[in-house]
Amino acid sequence: MKTAIITGGGQGIGRVTAHYLLTHGFRVAIWESDKEALAEAKKTFDATPGQLLFVACDVSSEADVQQAVEQTVGHFGQLDVLINNAAVMDEKPLEEFTFDDWSHGIGVNLTGSFLCAKYTAPYLKDQQGCIINMCSTRAFQSEPNTFAYSASKGGIFALTHSLAMSLGPDIRVNCISPGWIDVSAFKKKGKPEELRPEDHEQHPAGRVGQPDDIARVILFLTAPENNFITGQNFTVDGGMTRKMIYV
């Protein structure tokens, strides 16, 4: 049975992916820094204690990551998949965006992915495992006022191919760039957002994305028979980044 770490697994895409992998025979360690989200997530899972582990971890902290790796490997005995999903986004005009805002965004999103890769790599190598980084279509295009988020996601895109070249052939490294994924029902204290018809219709695929759309790509990338795929970015956005928009 394979073991996967999902950072930021207490809510959103991370939580849904954890459920999805559990139903496909994985053991899962959910790392989460938000205590409320972690407590809420625990109530949504129905898994045996040996199949699921919850770990409080701030991925921007080197000490936290080292401790979380030790706790996870100590509990499961092996590590096959790292999913770097934890992320924060702070939207403010540039004049209001502080250095602390910048440092926090880069620290969690980009430095966190680096630290998790660094300290899980020896265990992933033993299992010929893989790393899946959560990038974003915002690495390549932006709405206003997403400075640290967009920059960090651009960094994750580059970090992915750097890790793939550095850790191969023992560890495969890829990233996924989601577009608009409706995670409203899976956030802490969340409830489903009422999406308008035009929200769906503007997508060439005809709908806004769902977290399962990402979870299925993650499962695909973990499969050993797909071991010829590394250093790649998979855009899952309903076709929006290929759409020419004229007003």
Describe this structure in words.
The protein has 247 residues and is of the alpha/beta class. The chain has a single domain, classed as NAD(P)-binding Rossmann-like Domain (Rossmann fold, 3-Layer(aba) Sandwich). Helix content is 41%, strand content 15%. It is built from seven helices and seven strands. The chain has helices spanning 12-23, 35-42, 62-76, 99-126, 147-167, 197-201, 211-222; strands at residues 3-7, 27-32, 52-56, 81-84, 130-134, 172-178, 233-236. Strands 3-2-1-4-5-6-7 form a seven-stranded parallel beta sheet, sandwiched between helices. Helix 1 links the parallel strand 1 and strand 2 (27-32). Helix 1 (12-23) crosses helix 7 (211-222), helix 3 packs parallel to helix 4 (99-126) and helix 4 (99-126) packs parallel to helix 5 (147-167). It is globular.
Biggest sheet, in brief? 7 strands, parallel
- Shape annotation: globular
Q: Report the strand count.
A: 7
Helix and strand pattern = EHEHEHEHEHEHHE
Structural class: alpha/beta
What kind of oligomer do you see?
A: single chain
Continuous helix count? 7
CATH superfamily caption: NAD(P)-binding Rossmann-like Domain
Query: Helical residue percent?
Result: 40-55%
